[in-house]
Amino acid sequence: MCGIIGAIRRDGGILNSLVEGLRVVEYRGYDSAGVAILEDGAIAVRKKQGRLENLEAVLEDGAFDNAPVGIGHTRWATHGEPNDRNAHPHQGATGRVAIVHNGIFENYLELREQLTAQGVKFASETDSEVMAQLLDLELQENISLQDAMRRALHRVEGYYALGAICQGPEGPELVCARKGPPLLVAFTPDAAYLASDVLGVLPHTDKVIYLEDGDVAILKPGSIEVTDFEGQPVEREISKVDWKPGDSGLGGWPHYMLKEIHEQPDVLARTALDRIDLERGDVTIEGGQFEDDFLQGVERVQVLACGTALHAGMIAKYLIEGLAKVPVDVDFASEYRYRDPIVVPGTMALAISQSGETADTLGATRLAKELGAKVAAIVNVAGSTQMREADQILLTHAGPEIGVASTKAFTAQVAAAVLLAVRMGRAKGTLPVEEAKAILTELNGLRTKIEHLLSEPIRDHIHDLAKIHARAKGFFFLGRGVNFPVALEGALKLKEISYMHAEGYAAGEMKHGPIALIDPGMTIVSINAPGHVADKVRSNIEQVKSRGGVALSVGSHEGSHKIAGQCIRVPETIEWLSPILNTIPLQLFSYYIADLRGCEIDKPRNLAKSVTVE
Ligand code: M6R
User: Which CATH superfamily is domain 448-614 in?
Assistant: First the structure.
């Protein structure tokens, strides 16, 4: 959840590249930010609670210009409140080493007790500081940082991406290690870098080495050596990253969320168009993925995901069951991994994840694999752990998603689910070619309908509706069938960024209890599409309206719009694809409400973009 950064350079200039690196990984956690710099053999630490701007305010102009090495951190607090003291980097008692850490040392209390008994005084309440203190003690034996790191790693239990610096016997040292949370390294002729994600190194190079669990990397200007925890060299491939440094900029938009919402026409095109084969009425996934011989062996699908990605997975259930006639279960990854799931022969576990680093999703898919499932993944970040561990991959091409509230990644996941369901239906022979052609033709043309939804008049209309509802007492989002998960997603988006109470419900469930909450202060957002449940949704709106609720109808079903009074008209499409279009006005509605309420849209309180702890 935290962002970590490290750099070692022949020509100094470290501070600037650390701060720039922190700026792009800050979306991973923003409770505090800090840097540790080694200059003239001594480490200086600057750290501040709150956003990166707070740290920048205490960085002296022109300081550390000749420093060859440094590390930086943006924090999402797990142990110890978010304050200056608990901010990273942490140092050991003698100040000879500094570390940054993402993850959790599960045995930190035990280690803290042992170290305290040895006379070590702790400066913070964090679990991370035990690593700084352990390294400090090891380094008193005049060993190298990499050796000290390996010894210390044998004493800790838990999960970590770690970076550490010290002045070694032969010069400045920068070492990192990984078990669990993501970490990658990269080098140029004059420098070497480490970061929690590719965005952190992209300004310097597009060639990266993804570290694996159990790796320790030693970074020097112009080279990187990777070993295991015992010091044995290991080979790691250099991968080329497709993203460009500019992809992660705001590009003139006030918020990443708004920018990312507006990228959806292009994202849909990148994710779907090249894979659609209209002549054959089929889909081709590059790299020989999801071919007939694999899919014909799939008898059951188990979707594993969290948050927004889970909602995309719920839509995938409707699609796969409807088009490929294969039973699909959808589980919260965090629940699946701690029960006794049954994996029957022919199970395909389908992980869905934007980051590909979500700890619960990784844990659940690893369990499914152990129990005999084949693992497939719909993932956005190429090179992510989820991608590397899957047997079959379908990459969404949403590009970097920086806004904590997922938008373009969701519609890309739904588009990918459509492709997969069609592919499965064709491979299994359950989807007639003409029906497949009709779905793919509509998907092919969806881009212009998304563009229409993002046009100024529609945006202004949604903005006006947001003004009406920004002070509502609470919200119910209702949907049925393939649009039920859209209701869940609409509610999640609103609560995430506006902190308003919002619940998503299967519309038919209202009368079984929640309808008791309806009164004139409640806004009921009802999501609809023409199709077999359209009239049912309309009567659900009538039920809430007759109890005094204020209804807002989103979709393309005129009957529902008429009953509701207020509406957002969405271009018509086939029911299977309606979630993609219906989601977009809900994203804008949440965005405008959050903006009107003065919320921090891209960095909502208590959240972080990539949830790499349980
Ligand atoms: O990276 P992932 O897709 O695995 O992330 C899963 C969730 O943490 C994520 O979708 C979260 O719910 C978003 N903040 C929702 O906007």
Answer: Glucose-6-phosphate isomerase like protein; domain 1 (3.40.50.10490)
CA 299 to chain centre: 29
Active site residue 176: no
Residue among 113, 118, 153 nearest 135 (CA): 153
Q: Hey, whose CA ends up nearest to atom 11 of ligand 1?
A: 307
Concerning whether 567 is annotated as a catalytic residue, the answer is no
Q: How far apart are CA 593 and CA 247, in angstroms?
A: 26
Of 2, 306, 567, 599, which one is the catalytic site residue? 2
Which amino acid type is present at position 99?
I
Catalytic residue among 179, 449, 495, 609: 609
* 464-489: pLDDT as tens digits: 999 999 999 999 999 999 999 999 99
Antiparallel, parallel or unpaired: β 474-479 and 522-528:
parallel
Q: Measured between alpha carbons, how far apart are the two ends of the chain, in Å?
A: 10
Assess contact for 21 and 59: CB atoms under 8 A: no
Instruction: List b or e across 77-100, with b for residues whose CB sees 16 or more CB atoms inside 10 angstroms.
Output: bbebeebeebbbbbbbbeebbbbb
Q: How many CB atoms lie within 10 A of CB 233?
A: 9
Q: In the chain, list all ranges with CATH 3.40.50.10490.
A: 256-444, 448-614
| Å from CA of 40 to ligand 1 middle | 43
Please name the residues in contact with 543: beta carbons below 8 A apart, sequence gap of 6 or more.
510, 511, 515
In the predicted model, what is the mean pLDDT of residues 42-51?
93
Residues of the chain with CATH 3.60.20.10: 3-247
- For 3-247, CATH gives 3.60.20.10
Superfamily of domain 256-444: Glucose-6-phosphate isomerase like protein; domain 1 (3.40.50.10490)
C-beta of 405 in contact with ligand 1 (< 6 A): yes
Residues 568 and 462: beta-carbon distance below 8 Å: yes
Q: Residue 443 carries which side chain, given as an amino acid letter? A: L
Distance (angstroms) between ligand 1 centre and the Cα of 63 equals: 38
pLDDT digit string (tens) for 527-541? 998 888 888 878 888
